[in-house]
Amino acid sequence: MGSIVPVPITPQRFAGKIVFLTGGTGGLGAATCELFLAEGASVFVVDLHAHDIASKLSKTLHFQKCDVSDPVACEEAVRACVAHFGRLDVLINCAGRVGPVTDVPGMPVEEFQKLIGLNLGSVFYLSRVAIPQMIKQGGGAVVSIASTSGLAGDYGLCAYNAAKAGVINLSRAMACDHAKDGVRVNVVCPGYMITPMSAAFETQPDMYADLLDGIPQGRGCDPKEVGRAVLWLASDEASFTTGTTLVVDGGWGARSGAPKFTKYM
């Protein structure tokens, strides 16, 4: 049996590492970008809009506009990252959108295809270019953001449910295929996060109260709480972790779906 080599824990876990991050100009992506930069990484951010990232660009932070639902644009962006920084060590697939709340008959075909392309297709398009680059370098890590919506069904989120479930199983398949190459592939499934994308929840007081009541910790998640899980999976501290799905949801998924008996009895 081989010996276990301890991995030192330092505040600069990503010094010298190059991170390619999608959806990095807002919400969870922006929070995760900040965490990587604070731990010594250089980050190549792609998104459809620059937002306020333009004022933060530096030697260690680069931005390129990219539609990650376009396979050609994804390939060009990965090539640009390698040309700019010289390598690619970590791929973080964070771009995504929930889409309209409707059942299958009410979902326009074009909208379904767009949501699958953005939430699931982008993971495939980027991984197929990034992983060979990582293998050339001796290994790397891929971490994709799925959702608790990829673990169970939701009312009215048929496309989002399908896409996020696909991200989880695609990641498992890639983990199996590329463990021998030194490339680890994992998934983070956030529950309810307090981001601009979820701000609409707070405009429905009854629904919002019901939502929080269903979370054992009784609150929404700060994006950095999810971001720290992403960083751990991307770091050498998770060297024997691949093909896993890490749920960060305040205990939401631990419930059986039964009524909150302690509230009524």
Short key terms for the protein model shown above:
single chain, 265 residues, alpha/beta, Rossmann fold, 7-stranded parallel sheet, 14% strand, globular
Can you walk through the features of this model?
Keywords: NADP, Oxidoreductase. Belongs to the short-chain dehydrogenases/reductases (SDR) family. Pfam families: adh_short_C2. Strands 3-2-1-4-5-6-7 form a seven-stranded parallel beta sheet, with helices on both faces. With 265 residues, it is of the alpha/beta class. The model has no long low-confidence stretch (mean pLDDT 93). It has one domain (18-249): 3-Layer(aba) Sandwich (Rossmann fold), CATH 3.40.50.720. α4 (158-178) links the parallel β5 and β6 (183-190). The chain has seven helices and seven strands; from the N terminus they run βαββαβαβαβααβα. α1 (27-38) packs across α6 (223-234) and α3 runs parallel beside α4 (158-178).
CATH topology: Rossmann fold
Strand order of the largest sheet: 3-2-1-4-5-6-7
Number of strands: 7
Q: Domains counted in the coordinates: how many? A: 1
Q: Number of helical runs? A: 7
N-to-C SSE series?
A: EHEEHEHEHEHHEH
Cα-based radius of gyration, to the nearest Å: 19 Å
The CATH class label is: Alpha Beta
Q: Kindly report the average pLDDT value.
A: 93
| Contiguous uncertain segments of 5+ residues | none
* Fraction of residues in β-strands: 5-15%
CATH superfamily: NAD(P)-binding Rossmann-like Domain
Query: Sheet with the most strands?
Result: 7 strands, parallel
Q: Any idea what the CATH architecture is?
A: 3-Layer(aba) Sandwich
Indicate the percent of residues in helices.
25-40%
> What gap, in angstroms, lies between the N and C termini?
54 Å
Global geometry:
globular
- Class derived from helix and strand content: alpha/beta
Keywords: NADP, Oxidoreductase
Pfam family, one: adh_short_C2
Family: Belongs to the short-chain dehydrogenases/reductases (SDR) family.
